[in-house]
Design a protein that fits this description.
The chain has eleven helices and 14 strands. The protein is an alpha/beta fold and 359 residues long. It has two domains: 135 residues, translation initiation factor eif-2b, domain 1 (Four Helix Bundle (Hemerythrin (Met), subunit A), Up-down Bundle), CATH 1.20.120.420; 200 residues, 3-Layer(aba) Sandwich (Rossmann fold), CATH 3.40.50.10470. It binds 5-S-methyl-1-O-phosphono-5-thio-D-ribulose.
């Protein structure tokens, strides 16, 4: 089966941003074309496009959408419009740092051309930059796959949580890239897929991607992971990340922390795979990572049916934070960071410009 693109800029300028509508998977493959920042913000909040790197790529193109109608204005008005759309996109979701990383990169690109190019020329330059962000993301995912594949052995059972595949990036994924690459290298793996309550990214998206690439997998409810580990079927856990603090604490989909605790209790290595755009060295620990709270209805009325009493109080954080001490290794585009702590992260990332140099 050909795997559809997560996102694609169609045409040159003015152009539209085409998103694979992930709310409709796995039963329907359909697209959502965004022509305005408002439409894109709605799509990001609804998780039509989701996963940290994919949100960053979409936001970069979103800046181009927002400026399409501003090219005949004077420089001050153009930059005021740029500010507005950056702020609007930044308010779409709070946790994945790739969003803010991409917006900052777009803002810096525009500023570097201020006074040199007219607004139309700056917008052309911004579209090039958004395309570069997407191309670098693809390259980083492939590199993560190559570095991470070595961590998995022939015959391993591997558990993953949420979706850190091609759907969460511009292509190939982070945690799933490690699995896809090991599988391509000829290792026989069996992947255990946590369904990932409440929005079922594991069941709807990860199982679909693994099956599309013919990687053997078994879907389980989140509360079954302990039993699978206890029965000796798991040799590794690999997950993605939404934001990694300077000390190595990892924000990822709610439930990841529980999986890490279970893995430690069963002696199963727990790995995180993420590009450098997911590291936020400005935060000293995971305690400072903002955690998105989502609507109660996602739990009480998941997928259209009421499953809890009306009026019940609900707590619905979309992410949790796994302490660095539970992470055996971090796969990024330049290798594997292990052990995981402030010093090893600073040595690996601190001296690099926060931009991929693998393309
Ligand atoms: O709410 P989502 O679906 O955007 O959450 C996604 C995750 O938590 C992923 O694991 C993470 O973004 C890594 S994606 C390569």
């Amino acid at each position: 089966m050909t795997i559809p693109r997560t996102l694609e800029w169609i045409g040159e300028l003015p152009g539209v941003l085409r998103l694979l509508d992930q709310t409709r998977l796995p039963t329907e493959v359909c697209y959502r074309d965004c022509e305005t920042v408002d439409e894109l913000v709605v799509a990001i909040r609804a998780l039509a496009v989701r996963g940290a790197p994919a949100i960053g790529c979409a936001a970069a193109y979103g800046v181009c959408l927002g400026l399409r109608t501003e090219v005949d204005r004077d420089e001050a008005a153009f930059f005021a419009a740029l500010n507005d759309c950056v702020q609007q996109l930044a308010a779409s979701r709070p946790t994945a740092v790739n969003l803010f990383w991409a917006l900052e990169r777009m803002r810096r690109t525009a500023e570097s051309q201020r006074g040199r190019l007219p607004p139309r020329g700056i917008l052309e330059r911004l579209l090039q930059e958004a395309r570069a962000i997407e191309a670098e993301d693809r390259a980083m995912c492939r590199a993560i796959g190559r570095h991470g594949a070595a961590l998995l052995k022939d015959g391993d059972g591997v558990l993953t949580h949420c979706n850190a595949g091609g759907l969460a990036t511009s292509d190939f994924g982070t945690a799933l890239a490690v699995i896809f690459q090991a599988n391509k290298d000829g290792k026989q793996l069996h992947v255990w897929v946590d369904e990932t309550r409440p929005l079922l990214q594991g069941a709807r998206l990860t199982a679909w991607e693994l099956m599309a690439r013919e990687v053997p997998c078994t879907l389980i409810c989140d509360n079954m992971a302990a039993q699978v580990m206890r029965s000796g079927r798991l040799q590794a856990v690999v997950v993605g990340a939404d934001r990694i603090a300077a000390n190595g604490d990892v924000a990822n989909k709610i439930g990841t922390y529980g999986v890490a605790v279970l893995a430690a209790a069963h002696g199963v290595p727990f790995y995180v795979a993420a590009p450098s755009s997911t590291f936020d060295l400005s935060l000293d620990s995971g305690d400072r990572i903002p955690i998105e709270q989502r609507a109660a209805e996602e739990i009480t009325h998941g997928f259209g049916r009421q499953t809890a009493p009306s009026g019940v109080t609900v707590y619905n954080p979309a992410f949790d934070v796994t302490p660095a001490s539970l992470v055996r290794g971090m796969v990024y585009e330049h290798g594997v960071i292990s052990p995981v702590n402030a010093a090893t992260l600073a040595a690996a990332l601190g001296s690099r410009e926060r931009r991929a140099d693998v393309v």
